[in-house]
Design a protein that fits this description.
alpha+beta, single chain, DUF6788 domain-containing protein, 2 helices, about 110 residues, DUF6788
Length: about 110
């Protein structure tokens, strides 16, 4: 008696199962390779979205000035080999920055 085909995952849409069942072995291998590469890519995108950039400070400061919106982030800018904190936010197509203070290397993340 020939081996039975594998059972598809329960959460796989029926139209995908049907398309795979109708595919030749080589096409299935191509789909598998593409699906694995796409999954890795999407995992990486998700990780990058979840991680703060190196120039952003995770903790929101309690000293947010009145003229800086709550959506602003703290960014580190290097100017003439000196590092400074700036509040930075987007207003439409414009990115606005406001000086916050110098970076103390002992306090830097």
């Amino acid at each position: 008696m020939p081996d039975e085909p594998p059972a598809p995952p329960a959460n796989l849409p029926p139209e995908v199962v049907d398309a795979l069942n109708e595919s030749a072995p080589e096409r299935l291998r191509d789909v598998a390779a593409y699906a694995e590469a796409l999954a890795k890519h999407k995992d990486r995108e998700t990780r990058l979205e979840d991680e703060p950039s190196d120039n952003e400070i995770d903790d929101r400061a309690d000293d947010l000035p009145d003229d800086v919106p709550a959506k602003a982030t703290v960014t580190i800018k290097e100017i003439n080999d000196n590092r400074y904190y700036y509040w930075q936010w987007r207003d439409g197509d414009t990115v606005t920055s406001k000086y916050k203070g110098p970076v103390n290397p002992e306090e830097e993340i």
